[in-house]
Amino acid sequence: MSTKIRIGIIGCGAIAERLHAPEYANSPDADLVAFCDVVKSKAESIASKFAPGAHVFTDYMQLLKNADVQGVSVCLPNYLHGPVSINSLKAGCNVLVEKPMATSMAESRRMLEAARKAGKLLAVNQSQRLFPAHAKAREVMASGIMGKVLHVSAMFGHAGPEYWSPSGKWFFDKKKARFGAMADLGVHKADLVRYLTCKEVGSISAFFERLEKKSASVEDNFVAALKFTDGTVGTLAASWTVKGAEANYTILYCTNGTLSICAFPGRPLVAHLIHPECEINFDVPPPPENDDNGWGLDIGGRFCRAIKGEEEPYCSGEEGMKSLEVILAAEKAALSGRTVRIKH
Ligand SMILES: NC(=O)c1ccc[n+]([C@@H]2O[C@H](COP(=O)([O-])OP(=O)(O)OC[C@H]3O[C@@H](n4cnc5c(N)ncnc54)[C@H](O)[C@@H]3O)[C@@H](O)[C@H]2O)c1
Q1: What domain count does the chain have?
Q2: Are 159 and 110 within one domain?
Q3: Does 329 share its domain with 240?
Q4: Same domain, 33 and 49
Q5: Residue nearest to atom 34 of ligand 1 (CA)
Q6: What is the mean pLDDT of the chain?
């Protein structure tokens, strides 16, 4: 008989409502028992929608003390990821923290150390790893049909966080967000290219700019040139000023052909091979929609089963930290105008 893990959600904004809460509510492995938000009505509203009767708190320390939870999702503004994750781990709770996992390498190391000391799980919601086209692309790459990756191109762009979370003014405030588009969207692709190629970035040059969000104290556009440790090259881009249609693609140019992921409308995963010359359209669902039914990724079930030791987390704290490191190196490169090396 499967045991349900008692779960709390800290931060009841857009990602909690659209992804975490519905996916826990849909999972036989999770028992969603507590919600916390400084704005009580937000916690109440999401509780009534996904887990009527759950406890509601406005202070996360009270949730940790009184709700008897075994795991929490940390769905807060970026500057709170580190401190709230560390206090949750110290309280003996397993943590699934949103991306970017922290605002500095030192903070992410303290989070890993807190998890180690507590003997609890720290996982990072690099959710793009689970998109069906991405999961299938990883299988295709592992099968060897594409050969070796030579060049990578990845971009994530939309019109800005004001369209995703209208109340989330913190996204534009450097003190609370720490980064703009570069980490909000760029960290997804930094993680994804590491995940798909199984390669690490060795050096990086980058630019960022604030082109339209003039009242923000963070960048709204970012581009980086990457050289992986084996010499593979690539580009990583993120933008909050993409209009009309979202950009959310990754292309792997390989010795045997090209693997295009979410690059062509209606065709989420396409391989163009040269020997024999052919086009393969893989049968995978499109990327998730932003509604309140979850994204069909089973992030809640996966976290609970990882807590029970039944499977590995889809993105460990160590992996989240490596992807954050790419973004921090890019920031250093952009600020200094120099190429920055990442030591491995
Ligand atoms: N994995 C993904 O695809 C994805 C997508 C969007 C956002 N995110 C990440 O999720 C996090 C949250 O983003 P969001 O869009 O939900 O933001 P949001 O502004 O919609 O929600 C944040 C919530 O935290 C609450 N809050 C702030 N301080 C608090 C505190 N001290 N205690 C309790 N509650 C507090 C706010 O009231 C708000 O309801 C961010 O780190 C973001 O990068 C991840």
Answers
A1: 2
A2: no
A3: yes
A4: yes
A5: 37
A6: 97
